[in-house]
């Protein structure tokens, strides 16, 4: 299982990348994708939608399960990854490249974990 | 095997219709259809195609079908013959009541029998399936609280072992779902229930025996807690086959109930339907039943009804099959059916529980749940592997991975219409597979080995959905 | 013994003994069940007696020889091959095809059904059925609404039975608003869908292209009569986003209202909003084409309270029947059924007009139409009943909704007109 040093994480298995200028990219971790198994579809919000800290902003479907994706921020969606929306298997193949949404205007945030702290979270699951 | 479109040849005909000699009327061009590509086949093409499909289907009439929570009992053939009677088949739903007296009488008889059997005061036969019954029941409960000035009662408490239809039916009516945990005996945890009820409680939705096949010994205490908190108790009748003539939900505190005629009352499942999901209730809720209800003079409407949950009255032919079944069985036969359903489940369990782990080791009702977690840990062979391997022995797999609270779950419901030899053989096969898991786990890699197809690629089906036939396109990669 | 219970009472006792129980009472006591209620259901009877009893009830219903009533349930001819095929026990006694390996026959049958319904309606995707026409319309509401659009406009041309179901289904929703309209409607930014019936309850054929233009970004939901689609242009070609309806006409008898068939078809982009089961084509481990239930993460057994519908059991055998019927009649047969119904209905309309039951419909209609009735319509109906005729449906004291299908004949219509004339 891969955890990338340069990223931040949530305890609910999302990763966050700071793109600068107040824009953040959000995806799900390698651990999350492997737990879910073969991902077949992802439901994402639309550009301009408000997401709320700790609330689900979308969900991910595998053949036999569906899991919510939680937002680490209260913010505005400024971009969604159309490629992943059209081909969700990218999340299985390259979870850290297959970002889901980008957000801006962050007004609130959960306490993000660093790579080491996140590693510990996974070990306890 | 070809899809029927591929058998099509221009100008082949099966059914031909008489010329009525009227041709002078014309539809304007804008409305006229230009093209319709349905298959063109001769009758013998048609019949052979579908006979081919029938050889690739498996019903109760093909073999043992211990599919937990689905009550796949034998479907008596007399019921089909009754449903095919012209006097039932060829009547229009909007005929005057005076010309359908027999139908109304029959429906009334069925309602009365189901009330008697469940301890309810009123019954509607309107819902078309179990989940539709749940939906209707939730509407009745919601209507009751809204019309009594308590719209804030909008929470439904549902155990974590419940069928998915329960939370979905509640949510469709704007009700919030509150999950409660099961206790170590598989029953409702009384403390969790006590903590969950309150001024927002509309109802508790409960299956009893529960989805582990266990009768909740605290049932009276459970319904009392809910009633004291001001809520109503809803009984999911999915498992009524365990308690006919033995326990009446209305006697143990339930206010609303749905039944599944296609489970308990031996009407066939038809590959997924049509079913029928009557809803019963206590008298104080009767005025909320969906319209119309059958009164002394045929159909009647109540001002306080929730409205209508489907067109016309009910899945009438399914109801006629169930009524025939009830007449043949009678009070004595229905009780005997439940007794034997419970006996058969315990007998099968008894024959395998020394090697398989039972989720909760108690005398079960009409079904039981095994947990194959230990087998999986020790051999790598999963519940799904064992279930699929049963197909090579012409046994339909049990329900897999349900209820969600049991790991590697296999749920068996043999029903009362199976012989001791069938149960013995199933036990032998299960023991054989258990041995194989340890001696030759590789065997399970390709199961089932004998079926026309094996291990369909569900991931591919979901990622690249091919949901209809299209000319000149193939499913192949 | 018997009662469909296989083991003899001796065998039952032996099995009880093996479990260490002296009796059923002891077995149930150990399972936590005490006592047993007294039932008033009579004791069981033999099949012979039960059949006689049921046949007597059936005989108390009157099967009309001449039917001119539709309004959502139609008498059509059902080919024998259809009845024969769909009564095969492998289909009738199977459960939902969750185990694809032993359910290829049913899965392929449903896949073929989906394909035919898509072709008929001009849509891209179809589900495997819902309960009936009314619930199909109610479920289509959920396919239209989203976070930004909550209002549904229902045409009063829709069968009142269906409209009632739509209202009932969504009466406890916090967000969905349902409004009815007569001849015209206005959409706004909150409008999620516009629902019309094609042909409508009164037989009229609405101009779907015009309605779609007016509906703009709101989804156009067409409740279609599948028989009519043998003759009428597919709604999908005229702008429909979703086509749903009642499929009883496709091989199912009227049977006092059920079981029938709710069909639901849609444009491809709405596939994940479709409720209920869907069959997809895929391959097995050897690369062989096969079929399986798919996109299941939409459904209640996975999504639980977040599922848009709780439907589990549907009307699978009815869907299968519709597919066998469509294959049996083929494109030409369906055209003949539709055209003959259309021709006879127009002939009936002309003849009724002649004798003073003037036709109300202004534009084109299919196989149903409304007439005025110059006398008390209840009296007229009573007179018809006496002649073994189920006349049109009374919409009010002086309006009647008539219907003709291919099972009627020209001579029968001429005779009907003579019978009516007797009381005018």
Describe this structure in words.
The complex is a heterotrimer of chains A (about 120), B (about 475) and C (about 425). Chain A is α+β, with helices and mostly antiparallel strands. Chain A has one domain (about 10-125): RNA polymerase II/Efflux pump adaptor protein, barrel-sandwich hybrid domain (OB fold (Dihydrolipoamide Acetyltransferase, E2P)), CATH 2.40.50. Chain A is built from four helices and nine strands. Chain A has helices spanning about 30-35, 80-85, 90-95, 115-125, and strands at about 10, 15-20, 25-30, 40-45, 50, 55-60, 65-70, 75-80, 100-110. The two termini of chain A are about 15 Å apart. Chain B folds into three domains: about 1-20 and about 35-55 and about 450-475, no CATH class; about 80-325, 3-Layer(aba) Sandwich (Aspartate Aminotransferase, domain 2); about 330-440, Aspartate Aminotransferase, domain 1 (Alpha-Beta Complex). Chain B contains 14 helices and 13 strands. In chain B, helix 4 packs parallel to helix 10 (about 315-350) and helix 10 crosses helix 13 (about 420-440). In chain B, about 60% of the residues are buried. With about 425 residues, chain C is α/β, with parallel strands linked by helices. Chain C has three domains: about 1-35, no CATH class; about 65-75 and about 330-420, Aspartate Aminotransferase, domain 1 (Alpha-Beta Complex); about 80-325, Type I PLP-dependent aspartate aminotransferase-like (Major domain) (Aspartate Aminotransferase, domain 2). Chain C is built from 13 helices and 14 strands. Chain C has helices at about 10-20, 25-30, 45-60, 80-85, 90, 105-120, 135-145, 160-170, 210-215, 300-305, 315-355, 375-385, 410-420, and strands at about 65, 125, 150-155, 175-180, 190-200, 220-225, 240-245, 260-265, 280-285, 290-295, 370, 390, 395, 400-405. Chain C has a seven-stranded mixed beta sheet with strand order 2-8-7-6-5-3-4, with helices on both faces. In chain C, helix 4 runs antiparallel to helix 11, helix 6 (about 105-120) packs parallel to helix 11 (about 315-355) and helix 7 (about 135-145) packs across helix 8 (about 160-170).
